[in-house]
What does this fold into?
Amino acid sequence: MEVPWWRSATVYEIAPISFQDSNGDGKGDLAGLLSRIDHLKWLGVDAVWLTPIYKSPFRDLGYDISDYCSIDPAFGTLDDFDRLLGRLHEEGIRLILDLVPNHTANDHAWFVESSSSPENARADWYIWANPAENGGPPNNWLSRFGGSAWEWCEARRQYYYHSFLTEQPDLNWRNPGVRAAIADVMRFWLDRGVDGFRVDASAVLIKDEFLRDNPPSPDAKEKAPPQRQTPVFTDDRPETMQCIEDIRKVIDEYPGRLLCGEVQGKTDRIGHFYGNDRPRLHLPLNFALLDSPWDALSLQAAIDAYLNALPPQAWPVWVIGGHDKPRVASKIGEAQMRILAMLLMTLRGTPFFYMGDEIGRERVAIPPDRVRDPFEKLVPGYGLCRDPERAPMRWDDGSNGGFTAGRPWLPLGPSGSKNVAGQQSDERSILSLFRDLIALRREEPCLREGDQQPLRSQNDVLAFRRARNGDALLVLLNIAAEPRRWRWQGHGRLLMSTHLDRPPLPLPDAALLLRGSEGVIIALEPP
It folds into this structure.
């Protein structure tokens, strides 16, 4: 049986609006992305995942879609998309699109029709409910962006439900017509040649049919207002899994296409998203490395808990960044970012990282008058703003970072900060480390396909082995800023250090001194 391509792939997430502008309007576009394919090829990634590029009023980074089957004019045209897809495929790079099946924009034709009256053909395509006895919202459900999740529609004299912005009404996935329409959307893009989808908000597709109130969160007072409930009746409902199964059926009509997705819940729930006798997601995205405290024992526990939660035939996936996740380099610093890069590329599974992670990009300070994220505008003061992660890519040290000839839609941060050009010429930069690790993973069968064998992490050193057909690699990662010794028996050959300054020399049976924040990969000789 042929091994699926995504098992050996390295996947790179791109927010096109922040990648490269081609026309000076301060926003990235498809032509700009096309002009930067050489970076993707040089880096060595196998697939790119794009945040939404569909027609949208762009109130929430394009996750409010007005037309699933057209490109927003700010990004270009369908012809531009086809050129981009063709060029990526010529370079051996696959393309994954964001699929947003939970909600649309309120100016989508489906919602315009649905909201016009209770009698039209799409009346039940969204979640509608009558007022409570007092005339207010039907229940206590909260929007993730603050306030009630219900909005009044005068034309229908009913409320509609929105998990996110008021302008993002939720589709009714209990309606077969909705499922069929989203399936047709998928086929439209799969027929054009896209290699798969990342499903947005896949855990919230179904809400409780009885509209039962959510209970308060045990630590509600410590949380932002939208998070003061436990979303028992709005998130991760059992019926959601059937929706994901329906989405997977469409993917399986097209051999070799990938379905990955955003999931919610604790680690022990992630296995459900793979499916059993009915397949669901190939790769439910796992953020355990981002969520874990940054020390060797916590990382060891997080990795073990995740791997033990997977069904027998499931393939692991590891994600270290994203368009709505705080930049991890700001949390752990550049020295440990190198450690994280080596950890990502040596764990068993498919690695995902976000544009800018490869240069150690940190959060960019956003002045109050430049904030674009509705989360920060609607729920200010709780540190929920995602603009610092969405700041444009810095390609050089100029004032606009090589990103645009105009005024960037978000600040790039100060000139002279981390950028691609400055690091590409430095063979020991973190960018060079990412490139070398991606290449090593491609070359080493142990890293691509080998079993993962845990070792006892101690003295601030996270350790594990990868083994395949008698070959084995030892991975040692010093999570401390000070040197640490690791005693081991046997012989081996050093393949790589995160410092990129150790020659590939044989290593005798001895104690290996790891410098502060240094990781190494050692090829072990058979006993």
Remarks:
- DSSP finds 14 helices and 21 strands in the chain.
- The two ends are 32 Å apart (CA to CA).
- The mean pLDDT is 95.
- The CA atoms of residues 24 and 406 lie 5 Å apart.
